[in-house]
């Protein structure tokens, strides 16, 4: 018995290859186009028959999800095509030769596949609009805190940010803010280990309340305090299980609401904050320099890949690739080889917002 996915792929192959095969049999180009068109129309009729024949329904859903998946995947893979400009500032002070003396900016590259996707930097109004009424949870270690800061920095004016910065950066504590104008709620949850994130997922499930957007990440603390990549992978494996068990239960939330054609409207959008590039010689303690080596970083990245937590390996979370962003911004963008300047996390926020935009377009 063929599964839905195989049938979907088969249909895609028929539309693609049957007309091509015909062309091989010396059909004219017009006839070939006609043949493609006819197949396409048959599929379209299939769509209208969908409600009446249950087995066709599965089949057609699979075909359309293959097509949707294709455009979404192609722009998602371009999201990190960011180019940096890092230059010496006018008031360069050779006595304090550090990141403060350099001005940084970024934009998306101009290669054809990137241009097609038409990514945009969000202004505060657009960002507030997109997140209007949403519950956003940012959970993790200091990298996550910097992500939360960048998101608020984009939406709120600098006067309000001054007050927030102090509260948000109280060591090892949670933070919550509700932005009245747009009804957005943001929770920062201090969760330095993957096991803390797993606990958090369990709490959402227990409470039957699910955020609209979850942005989380973990790794640096484990690397420093356990320095054991296979143990890290075990903790990611159980995080993956808890995230996956969260997803199918969410659509039930809206079971009274009218079906809008997209059952997954209430599924949380899930992002993973990747570990930054570590510049070993700049790390600020002997212990960090000894334990957080390039080799260990490679092993931790490998554990993440093997855990299949990320979409790139078939998992549920889309990677915000801080490693690539920080690597490309470079040594002038960090003072301690681990925490980078705000501009790096700002780029990650715009990448996330564009990913949200891609997903919501697919659903309209
Ligand atoms: C600043 O420091 C970098 C290394 O971190 C060095 O390559 C560069 O020459 C220094 N610039 C000045 C003006 O001292
Ligand atoms: C958010 O949505 C509400 C209604 O859903 C609307 O009244 C309000 O103006 C929106 N705010 C922004 C900033 O778009
Ligand atoms: C995170 O997990 C560790 C290890 O399981 C635990 O000791 C710590 O209390 C947890 N922290 C938070 C904030 O839940
Ligand atoms: C779960 O519900 C309790 C009680 O209402 C609340 O204090 C807690 O913050 C909730 N947890 C999460 C993760 O939403
Ligand atoms: C690393 O973690 C694994 C799994 O928890 C454990 O079996 C192994 O003994 C640990 N290795 C070291 C060197 O502690």
UniProtKB/TrEMBL annotation:
GO (cellular component) term, any one: Golgi apparatus
Subcellular location: Membrane
GO terms assigned for molecular function: acetyltransferase activity
TM regions (residue ranges): 6-25, 32-53
Record's protein name: Uncharacterized protein LOC111492676
Keyword terms of this UniProt record: Membrane, Transmembrane, Transmembrane helix
Any GO BP annotation: xylan biosynthetic process
Domain of life: Eukaryota
PANTHER family recorded: N-ACETYLNEURAMINATE 9-O-ACETYLTRANSFERASE, PROTEIN ALTERED XYLOGLUCAN 9
